[in-house]
Fold this protein.
Amino acid sequence: MNFASDNVMGASPQVLQALLRANDGPLPAYGSDPITRAVERRLAELFERELTVALVATGTAANALALSLLTPPWGICLCHREAHVMEDECGAPEFYTHGAKLVGLDGVGAKVKADDLESYLRGLTSHVRQMPPKALTISQANECGLVYSTEQIAALSDVCHRHGLRLHMDGARFANALVALGSSPAEMTWRSGVDILSFGATKNGCLAAEAIVVFDPELARTLEYRRKRSGHTLSKGRLLAAQLEGYLANDHWLDNARHANRMATRLAQGLRSLPGVRLAWPTEANEVFPILPRSMDAALKSAGAVYHPWSGASLAPGEQVRADEILVRLVTSFATCEEDVRRFLSIAEAAASKAGA
Amino acid sequence: MNFASDNVMGASPQVLQALLRANDGPLPAYGSDPITRAVERRLAELFERELTVALVATGTAANALALSLLTPPWGICLCHREAHVMEDECGAPEFYTHGAKLVGLDGVGAKVKADDLESYLRGLTSHVRQMPPKALTISQANECGLVYSTEQIAALSDVCHRHGLRLHMDGARFANALVALGSSPAEMTWRSGVDILSFGATKNGCLAAEAIVVFDPELARTLEYRRKRSGHTLSKGRLLAAQLEGYLANDHWLDNARHANRMATRLAQGLRSLPGVRLAWPTEANEVFPILPRSMDAALKSAGAVYHPWSGASLAPGEQVRADEILVRLVTSFATCEEDVRRFLSIAEAAASKAGA
Amino acid sequence: MNFASDNVMGASPQVLQALLRANDGPLPAYGSDPITRAVERRLAELFERELTVALVATGTAANALALSLLTPPWGICLCHREAHVMEDECGAPEFYTHGAKLVGLDGVGAKVKADDLESYLRGLTSHVRQMPPKALTISQANECGLVYSTEQIAALSDVCHRHGLRLHMDGARFANALVALGSSPAEMTWRSGVDILSFGATKNGCLAAEAIVVFDPELARTLEYRRKRSGHTLSKGRLLAAQLEGYLANDHWLDNARHANRMATRLAQGLRSLPGVRLAWPTEANEVFPILPRSMDAALKSAGAVYHPWSGASLAPGEQVRADEILVRLVTSFATCEEDVRRFLSIAEAAASKAGA
Amino acid sequence: MNFASDNVMGASPQVLQALLRANDGPLPAYGSDPITRAVERRLAELFERELTVALVATGTAANALALSLLTPPWGICLCHREAHVMEDECGAPEFYTHGAKLVGLDGVGAKVKADDLESYLRGLTSHVRQMPPKALTISQANECGLVYSTEQIAALSDVCHRHGLRLHMDGARFANALVALGSSPAEMTWRSGVDILSFGATKNGCLAAEAIVVFDPELARTLEYRRKRSGHTLSKGRLLAAQLEGYLANDHWLDNARHANRMATRLAQGLRSLPGVRLAWPTEANEVFPILPRSMDAALKSAGAVYHPWSGASLAPGEQVRADEILVRLVTSFATCEEDVRRFLSIAEAAASKAGA
């Protein structure tokens, strides 16, 4: 019953097989091999347009490199106050941008709203003291498990582009968001105004593979130098490319995401129906954020369930976690098995009954 | 007949098997898993002492992170003028050190000599205009295929430590050097005064796995932050750890290196005996640098041999490459097969005969 | 009637005279001249202890260099959300620290409270994702014209030091705060736990002269390199030193500050007594923040008064600026003349009468 | 008899007077004052074209900011091996460019030759490992007291522009070079292909004033942010502007430079005529580099002459400094008096006679 994160499992079998297949024989180094080329073509096909791709091994590298293409050292990159890039990357964006400033906006459920963005931008002066805003980054699905609709993305990109900002999407959970929306990769990104995407695959079935997908070729001009210089250009490029080849083949990535989301929905439905339990935010992708009675939390933990407590910093106004409650995060993945979900729910139910007795 | 580099092949079978074995089940993320712990212990055992280890996916990352531990932004890191860190990493050391200066010293065969180091250091002033020298990095085996003896390493570290510099070893081809010297890991590093080692494994049988090995724990204090911030802390840490587990088990890494070196020696012996061919530098590890008649080069190329021309910038005084000659690099690896070596030599021999006819 | 800032005037006569006196004859370059030495001794005397001093031409340079001594690239520097370093230096701290993160805390009147600092620090994890907090910087007097008492400074430094942070004081208006408190330089700084001070002189009578004053010599080890490397080591060091010599002689700096504070008090008292006017924050040094009826603001502007509107972001809870009001900042300096204050107040009074009629 | 540098004296009287005149009354801060505007217009007039100007207090800041406009963090900036930016600025270019690499070319008398530049550039690959060359910087007059002719500058800029590089001129001794060539500011810079100029004034009569002069407005787009962010935007901008106003008025700057050059010529002629003395490089501006018998050096030193020994690293082939000789640098300035020159020469002459006796 490990719901700690979607990075606690290894690769899915299909990805692993692709890795094995790709191992034999000599291939040109540094990403000039045919597997990398094929992955680039596959992504172009999926996104229905020409694009520039750079493969890297971590989401932090993908995000930081992407933001460094958008934000000069003296610029501001906006994000939500609780964004992964703000809180969980030990300053990678600042390192890669050579000292740009991340400014965190408020917003319920870790979502940035177009109106708040507009207000913030209008409040800035153009004095040289003021670092100019250059980019917005949003997480899809986000840190509270929520998914921006394509309309919301378009509204944000509209504000961005009117004010001279570019829009980046942190897609560490891109597939989970995509199947949640039932949208297409193109619609959820460049057709809604996204300029650069961190296309995550690690959490959804790979071991370590992310693609920086740049929709405007002009933005990508310096990407190869930046990647090489940061040590993210693998000499045996097949390692990254093969994972993505397996990941993208036969809709495997979408199947994985659908499974993870289904497991999350089941957890959410089961928990929400229990007395004393409510959800901090709706379950839209593969993360569930229940507010549990502490007694239930104790019962789950002692039965071996693994998960983390979570911050309530962007709860809806009026909502709060009482002293005898705890807000936790449950993450499902391609590897989450139904049996674990069932067991988790039955322990929770027993705890609820006992508390009600 | 691909002798282009030791990074054109995938993983060796033993490494791949370890990767497969490690794939199952949930494991803690970000390198706090038991496989990573085991690799750390194994390295401590191999090096016969306590040490701090950080795993990364590329040699560029290993070198740049290591140098950033030694050289402040206003410091100088010395190296050979043709060192990999100087010429082939697109400024990664400058990026990771936030602008330290690499200063390249001369030296035949890409080797830094202790006397030259001493002279350089004595020539510096201590005025604030002068960036202070803080580190020396040497490649073992180096860019001309040569290996520093433990005495030479000790002589360099002695100069370094007397002048307040630290010594880093770029061990992208550590195993090849080690078996060439018949030395122990401890002797070739910390017992000879090396402070930090980039322990390479990618070229010698892994897909993407290098270990930063820090012998002085004080130097390692900031390493975790630097690694995370650069996006080199893999969430599924097992990917790196499993490769190294397979690599280090049962002397697999030494076997791989011995094979590669043997293939290189065979190539060197075969070529050297041909009329019109001589070696730019002795073959001490897994790289051979013959100066070939251009006609022989053409014959080899048209028979499908793959390899790169090389710079003669650090040839011995008096030695030079004539207009009808070409200096090339042949690299062997764990995967080089004897048949390829034989075929290569026989084509070369035929070309030599034809030229002599 | 120019109350726009304390940087709109040139140098005070005593400072200018010192500059003239210092101009003749050859002197060693780069700050190794006797005038610089004398200023260093004078500061040591004033602060009643050994200290390390580096002179620079701007407050931005002083602050950014000081913070770079305290905060590594992967560290957090705390400050108030509206601090000058956060809002008005175009990212200088980020540039000089190579990408450290400034985190802004809330607090009425731009003051950081020890309790809030403690809560923030306790809320952090020690996971490698989390940039570790390394410094707090406070402005004395601050951006809302308020002055930290020595007890408040000591309480902040106590929290800092218990949690491994260092304390920096941005003393752009150091003299104004000092005479407001009636404290001594030593009491207001190192005796209350301040580790580094930006000792401002530009706003209080110099043309361009600030001293970075480091109380812990260990912290200053890298300062000379950092200053040189940033282009802030003047070759003709006498320019900076002579200004400070004139500034510090005969309590000239304290006289200047007393005059400025007196002018501010007079403005505050006059304005506060008018119907429809109130102060956003108490007037403690040389800045006055009245909330004026818009009609009064118009009358003052049309009579030629110069000043800027100001942000109400850290007004006390419950306080707010109505639509027919405006919050403005009036800054006085050594050069503010009583006649201007009188005229300003009489125009304001007339506007108040007219509004009341 | 202080010939240590042209930065050991204060300001010339005309510059000082301008500073005094500019001190009175309120002026807008941060360089938006009318004196700064007037200096900008004056420079545009002098250079016979529209240009962008940013004033700073040091040559190091001017050079580093200028180079940061030309060289991205992953780019190479070429210069002579002994250039001031390479040897004497403690890594300021690396700091401001966020880690670009300075690569030093060889050349007699610290001069870069167009042919050598061309060869270097042709030798580079376009592989991503290779940082791309983006700029060349030359010093005019240079570190060996030599002056590039306009033809030489044009030849260098031609190579630069054909290869996609920009050309920067470090004009710390711009006026000395200009009067030496008898050229116009326009001819010696943009008409010969210079893209950015560090227009030095500190060494030639100011206290601390340099102008970054950008001929291509597109290159200047980010300059204001970079200057502010580095702490080089003075709040009381009049300090820099007033110095330059006095400096540029009535050809004062040219008079100062002519005087300095004349004094250097006199020193050179006098010394060169003495037995046992020769010049390392011709005297073309305000620096003289005699190779003196050590006995003469001792006599001069004991008579109170002040000057520095110098490096012979770029002596002409065949030339060398014998063990009983010393290569020294004598620098003259606007403030060098004829009497000092006469005395210096007469001591040298006496020493020569004594040695010959």
Remarks:
- Chain B has a mean pLDDT of 97.
